[in-house]
Amino acid sequence: MDLRNIAIIAHVDHGKTTLVDELLKQSGAFRANQEVAERAMDSNDLERERGITIFAKPTSLEWKNTRINIVDTPGHADFGGEVERILSMVDGVVLLVDAAEGPMPQTKFVTSKALALGLRPIVVLNKVDKPDAEPDRALDECFDLFASLDADDDQLDFPHMYASGRSGWADHELDGPRKDLTALFDLIVNHVPAPKQIAHQDDDFRMLATTLGADPFVGRILTGRVESGTLKVGATVQALSRIGQKIEQFRVTRIQAFRGLATTDIDAAQAGDIVSIAGMSKATVADTICALAVDEPIDSQPIDPPTITVTFGINDSPLAGRDGKKVQSRVIRERLMKEAESNVAIKISDTPGGEAFEVAGRGELQMGVLIENMRREGFELGISRPRVLMREEDGQTLEPIEEATIDVDDDYSGAVIEKLTGARKGDLVEMRPAGAGKTRIIAHVPSRGLIGYHGEFLTDTRGTGVLNRVFHGWAPHKGPIPGRRAGVLISMEDGEAVAFALWNLEDRGKMFIGAQTKVYKGMIIGEHSRENDLEVNPLKGKKLTNVRASGTDEAVRLTTPVTLSLEEAIAYINDDELVEVTPNAIRLRKRHLDPHERKRASKQG
Question: What is d(CA 328, CA 473) in angstroms, rounded to the nearest whole number?
């Protein structure tokens, strides 16, 4: 059977996973009466809740005696480590672009990686049946994007199609029959080359591990593309590190291939196919699994360095240990090391005291997903404010710069530009009308300036703005950037908050808690309306008297408290504050900085 390996690239919410659903259905991967969930490839709970793809996942289908292996890639740059590894397994990419929005930052990020590997793209203009779709403009923007990313002539001569993933059709012409995805299937088979590894069937077996998984019955599972040779169940192979060091020798106990949404046990893996193997105990991502006669590892793609770091510590608040079972630093360290093993974009290091751990990654969303997963597993954590990682070059301090692409109503564009280019030290790159009364703003802003900005942005745009950001490059340090301007309200007592006390405190600012919420000394219960912090007593009840007359008691009606999500809480805090994360609660509290942390915070500005 012929073989094709492709990856599907798209920005968040451009319809990538929905299109994969339709490709699987129309190829006959499902039974006629099989019940399949919407966005079937988003199998993780967090992916389904948030509507985004976090983990790269392979699937496969058959079309006219050709097996097409499809890799569904994350659209968000925070999970770019998944993309960089997975692109080494494919021979072509399908770039899915919203016909109304055009190429967006994450599209640019992943496409640059694909073009650098020499992959030839197929452009699919999705959602052309939307009222505000402008497919011709979006197509021109795709060409301009490829040209700006130094695409060669073959890559610039890309085929394109018009499609509606939700309706399940794709055509070469905008006014085509709009019946099914046959034209897209045929284009993939004809345009994407067969794996060149097929020519090396008789060579020694070699495979580069790109993703790591686990099975309760067989243990560690490594997935990758077979670069050469054939592997059979029961064969003895070895694992080599990136520098050629022998890690272990093991017997292959299982080989699995992707068939639709399921994995199927097979007896042998051929060169060019994407498979998972089991039997190893130490081998991990970026290692080369090969025959015993091989002594040279396969070159693995370099991974972009982390840009932010967050401190994970034990929860040492007075309410610690009431919700979660995993509270010791030893258990937290084991879990973080396990995460770093499978996620090469994350780096873990111990702090001087050994009680906390520095976790470096790509962005706040990546950190938020890791913390949320640990929280659901029963961990209790104390999380610091994200800090940007600086770089020293030729005696000069460089900081990461992000490209922010913003779609906002015309009325609010002035406020957004003022915030980004003022105190946050951003540079305006482009501003143009985006149709339907909206303006598109592109700015290069220091990563420090965007931490904690999203909530403020939603307030400034009345919740109508859309902000996308992606790593752009490094630039000289731009000096201090002010953090949160408002102070906080801090509890001065331990106990349960009283409605009467909170009602009296509403004049002081916004509340983060409601009545009967457990509080303790040092816990942040609200945002002060002024710039200074204020200690308050949320336990103060109404004085009792023996006089009861009609009209003397005032009804206590509390304003609904502000509920911060995990990412919002992490971005909200200052350097002298922590987020206390437990399976059932997210709390903010004050902490005391040691001299080393105080010096580092002042240096960051």
Answer: 38
Paired residues of 9 in beta bridges: 95
Domains parsed from the chain with CATH numbers:
2-193 (3.40.50.300), 198-290 (2.40.30.10), 391-476 (3.30.70.240), 488-573 (2.40.50.250)
Cα–Cα dist 425/417, whole Å? 11
The conformational region for residue 65 under phi > 0 = left, psi -120 to 50 = alpha, else beta, is left
Taking the CA atoms of 571, 577, 581 and 584 in sequence, report the sign of the dihedral they define. negative
3-state DSSP assignment of residue 237: strand
Backbone angles phi, psi at 454, to 5 degrees: -60, -40
Read out DSSP for 287-314? PEEE-TT--SPPPPPPPPPP-EEEEEE-
Q: What is the overall mean pLDDT for the chain?
A: 82
Q: For residue 110, give every residue at least 6 positions away whose Cβ sits within 8 Å of its Cβ, in sequence order, or none.
A: 9, 73, 75, 80, 83, 87
Q: Is the pLDDT of residue 251 over 90?
A: yes
What the block records as the tokens of 245 is 């060091």
| Calpha distance 193→171 (Å, rounded) | 21
Question: Considering Cα of 88, then 90, then 92, then 97, what sign does the dihedral take?
Answer: negative
299-345 confidence digits (pLDDT tens): 876 666 788 899 998 888 888 888 888 888 889 988 898 888 777 77
Q: In 3D, which of 151, 152, 180, 149 has the Cα closest to residue 164?
A: 180
CB 426 within 8 A of CB 445: yes
Locate 584 and state its tokens. 């059932």
Q: Is 551 left (phi over 0), alpha (psi -120 to 50) or beta?
A: left
Gap between the Cα atoms of 405 and 12, Å rounded: 13
Whole-structure pTM value:
0.75
> Residue 63, SS3?
strand
* Residue 571 near residue 364 (C-beta atoms within 8 A): yes
Grouping H, G, I as helix, E, B as strand and the rest as coil, residue 64 is coil
What are the two backbone dihedrals, phi and then psi, of residue 273, each rounded to the nearest 5 degrees?
A: -85, 155
For residue 380, count other CB atoms closer than 10 A to its CB: 27
How many CB atoms are closer than 10 A to CB 394?
5
Residue 191: φ, ψ to 5°:
-95, -40
